[in-house]
Amino acid sequence: MARILVINPNSSENVTAAMDLALDPLRVAGGPEIESLTNPDGPPGIESQAHVDDVAVQLRAIIQAHDHRVNAFVIACFSDPGLFAAREITAKPVFGIAESGILSAMSLGERYGVIAILSKSIPRHLRYIRSLGLEARLAADLAIELGVTELADEGRTFSRMVEVGTRLRDVHGARALVMGCAGMARYRRRLEDTLSIAVVDPAQAATAMAVAAIQLGQSNGNGQAVVSGG
To answer: Mind listing the domains of the chain with CATH numbers?
Structure first.
């Protein structure tokens, strides 16, 4: 059976568990197995450029260790740490959740907004979005001012997400929202229902792209076909 490995680059098992649960709708009969993995050597949350740079090296080692048994990889951090280096070391497709989430949001609304965890994350997001050439349709990137480990506080987190999502929709003109952290996965459906606009969980978006690549036998960045067996 084909297998997708979804890697949480931080060391929070709670984030991995919430993310993995959110991937259940993509686990379908005849489809690839979806496995979630925590990086035990990562920080509790990836909240700085230094964190991104450090885990990029760790992710490279994880991908090399699992390359023989996996058909596609997902890097489940909104900074897409080590994405381009990972694509150089494996013939398997590698999806970053920021790139995938933004592309999905752009297909659902003319302008997209990003719900970040912290204000200090926003410059990093904007640098990356500019590097992808996707800034023209960005409405705004606003923070809820909660760290990764604080996202487990459901009442406070959801209240902040509604507040920021409302500002992105009503003040900045966003017509689709991307949640800027894999740890927000549990809130997607409720937030979408509350705000009445599309909300994208980027880990779901990236994994859905990985499923499609395997099922359709599409070629990857190295020009090799993705096989459905494994």
So the answer is: 3-96+204-216 (3.40.50.12500), 98-202 (3.40.50.12500)
Beta bridge partners of 177: 113, 199
Q: Tell me how far CA of residue 202 lies from CA of 68, 147, 163, 207, 212, in angstroms.
A: 26, 18, 20, 8, 15
**Phi–psi pair at 44, nearest 5 degrees:** -60, -30
Residue 28 CB contacts under 8 Å (≥ 6 apart), including other chains: none
Distances 46 to 21, 53, 220 between C-alpha atoms, Å: 21, 10, 27
Spatial separation of the C-alpha atoms in residues 144 and 131, rounded to whole Å: 24
pTM: 0.92
The rounded distance, in Å, linking the Cα atoms of 195 and 127 is: 28
Alpha helices in the chain (DSSP H): 13-22, 49-66, 83-89, 97-108, 122-132, 154-170, 188-195, 202-216
Strand-strand pairing, 3-8 and 33-38: parallel
Per-residue pLDDT of the chain (230 residues; tens, 9 = 90+): 899 999 999 999 988 999 999 999 999 999 999 999 999 999 988 888 899 999 999 999 999 999 999 999 999 999 999 999 999 999 999 999 999 999 999 999 999 999 999 999 999 999 999 999 999 999 999 999 998 888 888 999 999 999 999 999 999 999 999 999 888 989 999 999 999 999 999 999 999 999 999 998 876 666 555 555 54
20 contacts 4 by C-beta, under 8 angstroms: no
The Cα 195–Cα 115 span in angstroms is 13
